Backbone:
């Protein structure tokens, strides 16, 4: 499929495989992707697509290259390893126009920053859409992924961990929790999902949590107010490795609202380690 | 005041200073304390009171010594460093009568175990009352304790951390949370309050949380369903030291439902480190 056909779509690409996956999916859907790669973040694979590498703060340049390529819709996707250091921003004229807004955003938390970026993009003339709208196969669907399935004990832990993950999402505090043998043992906040899983393993090694075999469930879901266009929760191979290492039985993710990054690797790792990965529809009535 | 006067009160004493504080308060209130000290847990100070040292599982003996001393009401209080190992229980005949119940209790989580113990004590003829009913001064009251007071920024963090602590209490997952600059950064589950505070300090040292000076609030409250007679949440000198070490600005505790252990030390430590300790009435309408 030629890159020159179809309705253009802009991709602002951070790191990892997902931006490339989105570019491929866009091509398959008959779209014409143009990538603005964030310097130091995006993978080399973006070189296979029409692209330009820009630094943080080159907002005016981003706007003009997207306009030059006919982009009206864009996807912002990929890992950001480093929190941008405002003092090192390469500010162009376009950026200076939006600086007052950017400064206001940086004062707030991540969620505000991300939805603020969507607003700014809108003012620059672009509609931000979710990566999952171009590549719906990225998102968790109902039921088990891979070979293993949750048993009855795990089913209870799924319900408990999901309830906890939802409760902390409602108060904008976190999006993941671990339950083992019916008890919530860890909830995620600033340490991040992997940090929380590692803590469960450490508590077990210290003898403060005890179980035999694989037990317990990591649940991950989106906050009710989360802007899924720019901030969909993800699990990936690192999550599976951490869960396996901690001795958990499996991972439950909210269907339609959690992205599974590198799905093939996720399935292979989970199958090999004996973990289930299950898509769960979040229900307020679950005990 | 003579130890031989007044209505008897039984004290089942674990470790720390609180059992002794309760015994003193009972004397002041004209009660006649008799202590059953748990072997390996209770402090030597209990020797100043009529007492008997018993091992885990000597339930029949406990019943008979309390009955012999005219005890009808009892307080169960103090730290239990070691989770009782059922295989090492010294089971007497009184214990054997309640074994089926004890076994059923041990299958469940802590909360169930503790309220189950209250039920068993009731069946043995004793009414369990809270330490705070004998020594109400143990419990947090409204307003600042000590020299320092929360400022406006801290006030917002109090509200956020309290809301998080309440939310995780409702789902029986934990009773403490930390908020910094309006953001919930940690929630307590199996790692315990001190473990959670230490994590905040570690995230700061790793550069994953940034603030200058003292910032952020630890909030602690009881779960709605918590049996305050046997399981009131506590803070003490260790909590203050951990909070000071992590760089927090202060500690907020739910009035009437959190116990302040070693209050004088808590105040002195907090005053010296520049931390506030504030009693906060938990309100569902706090943002």
Residues:
């Amino acid at each position: 499929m030629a890159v020159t056909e179809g309705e253009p779509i802009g991709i602002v690409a951070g790191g990892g495989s997902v931006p490339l996956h989105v570019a491929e999916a866009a091509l398959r859907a008959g779209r014409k992707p143009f990538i603005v790669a964030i310097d130091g973040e995006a993978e080399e694979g973006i070189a296979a697509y029409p692209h330009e590498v820009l630094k943080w703060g080159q907002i005016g340049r981003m706007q003009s290259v997207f306009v030059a390529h006919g982009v009206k819709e864009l996807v912002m996707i990929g890992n950001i390893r480093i929190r941008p250091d405002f003092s090192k921003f390469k500010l162009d004229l376009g950026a200076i126009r939006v600086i007052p807004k950017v400064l206001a955003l940086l004062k707030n938390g991540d969620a505000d920053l991300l939805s603020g970026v969507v607003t700014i993009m809108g003012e620059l003339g672009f509609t931000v859409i979710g990566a999952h709208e171009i590549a719906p196969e990225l998102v968790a669907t109902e039921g088990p992924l891979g070979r293993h399935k949750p048993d009855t004990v795990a089913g209870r832990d799924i319900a408990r961990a999901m309830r906890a993950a939802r409760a902390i999402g409602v108060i904008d505090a976190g999006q993941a929790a671990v339950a083992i043998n019916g008890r919530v043992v860890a909830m995620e906040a600033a340490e991040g999902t992997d940090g929380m899983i590692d803590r469960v393993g450490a508590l077990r090694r210290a003898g403060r949590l005890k179980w035999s075999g694989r037990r317990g469930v990591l649940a991950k879901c989106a906050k009710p107010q989360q802007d899924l266009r720019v901030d969909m929760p993800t699990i990936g191979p690192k999550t599976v490795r951490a869960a396996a290492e901690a001795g958990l039985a499996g991972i439950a993710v909210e269907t339609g609202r959690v992205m599974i990054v590198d799905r093939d690797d996720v399935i292979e790792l989970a199958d090999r380690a004996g973990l289930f990965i299950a898509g769960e529809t979040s229900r307020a009535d679950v005990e």
